[in-house]
């Protein structure tokens, strides 16, 4: 492989409810990263695992002070991009919408239905418009590596599933939960959108492992979801989640070719605003996210 066409990856991990740090890192340091989009959820934890550079972000902040609708998703993704992150593995607690995904199941999500409505969902506002493809919202290369490492660790993961993103913070009504089941969704959560959309706009390869903590509120034989139940099951899930992260970081971190699916070149054919009509102030804010295409 020609050196000049290869990438030395930096692995980003976004930890959801119950996952506020990662263990086993060398040279670890929490560092504040400033972004033109405001404050990320917390400082970022920089470190190395088996020599591979990685950056961890607790999605809701340490101690979980930030609710889903107040997450600054743009700042989170920009901060990871600015820190050199090329690949993101997102971890999330979710409710199950299927009988065959009981609490404790892990799902490698491959589709989303975005029902969130109170969030900033794009970096490309007035003055620099872009439309990236979202037909395949997650990176198959990261997904394949997650499956490989999970197999080696004997951790069972369902390959593929649709994650319904609700606004929250209240959990669903029973009618909503039934509707999402009829739509064929597998799991429900409040956070993976616009996270996945913004990662695509920032040309960061993104994949998501959803960890089932409850049966939401549709199941006759199970109680409706509560935070206490989520936290209890997450504590049981977290050992496997941590083992998976420890294995996936070194595996993903090997020098490699650009993403075969093109996630890292998502902006190649996405910008529509004519150069003369672009807003210089917005272009300055897009330095990390879109510098690759704006400066060529
Ligand atoms: C604590 S239950 C609801 C909460 O948990 C999930 O968060 P995350 O995706 O960050 O693990 C869900 O989306 C809600 O934000
Ligand atoms: N049932 C549920 N609905 C939304 N988000 C969740 N996170 C964990 N369980 C959930």
Fold and architecture overview:
- Substrate binds at residues 190, 214-216.
- It is an enzyme of class 2 (transferase).
- The protein has 296 residues and is of the alpha/beta class.
- It has a single domain, classed as 3-Layer(aba) Sandwich (Rossmann fold), CATH 3.40.50.1580.
- It has seven helices and eleven strands.
- The chain has helices spanning 73-82, 140-152, 174-182, 192-201, 227-252, 280-285, 287-294, and strands spanning 11-15, 26-31, 44-49, 52-58, 87-96, 106-108, 111-114, 158-159, 162-165, 187-189, 205-214.
- Strands 1, 2, 3, 4, 5, 6, 7, 8, 9, 10 and 11 form an eleven-stranded mixed beta sheet that branches.
- α3 (174-182) links the parallel β9 and β10.
- α2 (140-152) crosses α5.
- The longest helix is centred in the C-terminal third of the chain and has 26 residues, at 227-252.
- The mean pLDDT is 97.
- Adenine is lined by residues 93-95, 166, 171, 188-190, 213-214, 216, 225, 230.
- Residues 93-95, 166, 171, 188-190, 213-214, 216, 225, 230 line the site of adenine.
List keywords for this structure.
about 300 residues; alpha/beta; Rossmann fold; 11-stranded mixed sheet; binds adenine
